Amino acid sequence: MIGLVLDNRYKLTDFIGAGGMALVYKALDQRTHHAVAIKILKPEYKNDEEFLRRFEREAQAASKVSHHNIVNLLDVGAQDNYRYLVLEYVEGRTLKEIIDEKGALPPTTSVQIAIRLLSALQHMHKNGIIHRDIKPQNILIHADGHVKVSDFGIARLAGSGTISKTDMVMGSVHYFSPEQAQGQEVTEASDIYSAGVVLYEMLTGTVPFDGDTPVAIAMQHIKVPPRAVNIINPAVSPAINAVVQKAMAKDPRARYQQAEDMARDLQKALADPGTREPEVVIDPPQPQEKPRRRVIRPLEKFDWHQAVRPVLMGVVALALTGVLALLALRMYNSIVNSATAPYVIDETETNALRLIARAGLTAEVSRVSDAERPVGTVIQQAPEFGTTMRQGSKLLITVSTGPQQQEVPSLYGMSVTKASAELERCGFTLLALSRREVSEKPWDTVLTQSPEAGELLSAGGIVQVILSGGSVTIPNLVGMNRAEALSLAESIGLRVTEVLEEPVEDASKDQQVAAQFFTDSDNQPAQPGDKVISGTMGRIAVYVLTPPASEGQ
Questions:
Q1: Nearest Cα residue to 177 out of 135, 114, 228
Q2: How far apart are CA 537 and CA 514, in angstroms?
Q3: Once rounded to an integer, what is the mean pLDDT over residues 270-295?
Q4: Does 316 have pLDDT greater than 80?
Q5: Same domain for 100 and 74?
Q6: Active-site pick, 133, 144, 191, 370
Q7: 359 and 244 housed in the same domain
Q8: Which of 188, 234, 391, 499 is deepest in the core (most CB within 10 A)?
Q9: DSSP per residue, 218-242
Q10: What distance in Å separates the CA atoms of residue 84 and residue 25, rounded to the nearest whole number?
Q11: What's the mean per-residue pLDDT of the chain?
Q12: Weakest-pLDDT range from 26-35, 254-263, 400-409
């Protein structure tokens, strides 16, 4: 089909791949001269009403969303035997390909990708769309680092019709939720579960559940709790692990109910790695009161009408008072708690954040490459200027990271936290290598970087850094008392992980250090006077008095 022109406009130039019901081609829009992606329904399904409905449903779902983290629908058409969708073309790779190549991704990178995925899901869910097939294969990473969610092939409008036989169990078995595995109703919480699985795979390099058959995997989704990600990858903080566990709760009610809530907790987890989310309790049983003994007294005759009339009048008056108070409260809230979205396009990021805070709103920042707008300039906002919002609501702003290639800033001497923020401002990602170097600089200070400061790097590129491990001078512990030697080592930042005991008959040597074994950053023996990284581990040997053997033995 290469060379075929659809609608006298879209010329197919390259074959990209095939899905369950469609073929995907790269094409040239001869009207705009832009590259696009064309998704064509396979010819064998052209008369299959069920697949036609699914294809139309995909078009309907895609047409309802427009977001910088979603592959946008540009056109829909039909020609001869071909039904097709025209989609935004993303030059890059799938997240699955990246994980297969690199294994576990750095926690910061994984969380940033997950936040962008959740931003896309929040937009879909607000527009009544449940994706139902969130997986790394459907997440595209643009060459400039932008994250795009694709493939609405089995998406469904929230609360819409019945489930067809071909998608009774929707989604991919490694990523779908327990309710999907059981063929139950699918809600926004199902997409959030799948997002949790995707984050799990990014952090560990593997899916949480695997097996020989789809049924075996599905049963694990239903019954088996996922292994903690920070057990598999100790670089993952307890706070990030807590978010993953909550997102992957078996009971949909125990998960995050909105994608933005999960994104917010991930941002908190990056800022404070040690915190954990509280356990979620679903419908805790209420303590039952013991029945009270009733004392039955003989009834006396009285006028019911006279007794009830003032009560009824009091109830009516109370109800009217409550209604008036509620109306007044709503009117007060609409006036006092409302805010108007300010105009922040073309403002610097600093000014935009100040204007948004002054309006009583909070800001959520995403960054994209833009060759025409200066670095740090706001190029988009949502909602638009003048929109009435509730105070504290989020205003989304997109900030330019400048042209696709720009100079890498100097990170030397910065703390890893400050360096990461500086790179993010420029549209880059920091990758701290596990190897550290001995230095007089404080722990976690950037010592070297690659690419070097001033070199050009594409937006979304990764800058590798080597961090300081601090330094400590190896003391001579030999001959010291065991307790004194351990105390000294701990006080200067050395870790004695093993104490070997050497028998000795000389009581004067009891509990003295006989030998010490420490190594440097290259795992070479370190002698007293050598400088090594703070926290270096080693062993010592200590003489232990051995009682003399009794006679006759």
A1: 135
A2: 18
A3: 50
A4: no
A5: no
A6: 133
A7: no
A8: 188
A9: HHHHHHPPPPPHHHH-TTS-HHHHH
A10: 10
A11: 81
A12: 400-409
Q: How far is CA 360 from the centre of its chain?
A: 27
DSSP H or E run through 491: helix 482-492
Two tokens at 157? 């409008």
Closest to 109 in 3D by CA, of 404, 444, 464? 464
The Cα 418–Cα 186 span in angstroms is: 42
133 is catalytic: yes
β partners of residue 266? none
Listed in sequence order, the DSSP H helices in 183-292 are 188-204, 214-223, 229-232, 238-247, 259-271
Domain end position, chosen among 378, 400, 422: 400
Distance CA 248, CA 207 (A): 12
The residue-averaged pLDDT of 264-287 equals 62
Closest CA to 360 of 378, 335, 332: 335
Residue 141 — φ and ψ, nearest 5°?
Answer: -110, 110
Euclidean distance between CA atoms 502 and 512, whole angstroms: 10
Look at the chain and report how many structural domains it folds into: 5
One-letter amino acid for residue 360 of the chain:
G
Exposure string (b/e) for 127-159, b if CB count within 10 Å is 16 or more?
eebbbbbbbbbbbbbbebbbbbbbbbbbbbeee
- Two tokens, residue 294: 């009733």
Q: Which of 448, 378, 449, 379 is nearest to 407 (CA)?
A: 449
Rounded distance between C-alpha atoms, residue 32 and residue 158, angstroms? 35
Contact 551, 510 (CB under 8 A): no
- Please indicate, yes or no, whether residues 419 and 454 belong to a single structural domain of this protein: yes
Domain range spanning residue 125? 92-159+169-271
Read off the pLDDT of residues 416-475 as tens digits, 9 standing for 90 and up: 999 988 888 787 888 888 778 888 888 889 999 999 998 888 777 889 999 988 888 999
Residues in a beta bridge with 366: 398
DSSP designation for 447 = E
How many helices (DSSP H) and strands (DSSP E) are in the chain?
A: 13, 27
Judged by DSSP in three states, 45 sits in helix
- Residue keyed to tokens 């078996």: 250
Whether residue 375 lies inside any domain: the answer is yes
Q: How big is the chain, counted in residues?
A: 553
Domain at 70, CATH number: 3.30.200.20
Residues 357 and 451 in one domain: no
- Angstrom distance (rounded) from CA 219 to CA 217: 5
Q: How far apart are CA 427 and CA 248, in angstroms?
A: 30
CB atoms within 10 A of CB 275: 13
Residue 294: inside a domain = no
Question: Are the C-beta atoms of residues 261 and 221 closer than 8 Å to each other?
Answer: no
Q: Please tell me the distance from the alpha carbon of residue 254 to that of residue 257, in angstroms, as a whole number.
A: 8
Tens digits of per-residue pLDDT, 87-139? 888 888 899 999 999 899 989 889 989 999 999 999 889 888 888 889 999 89
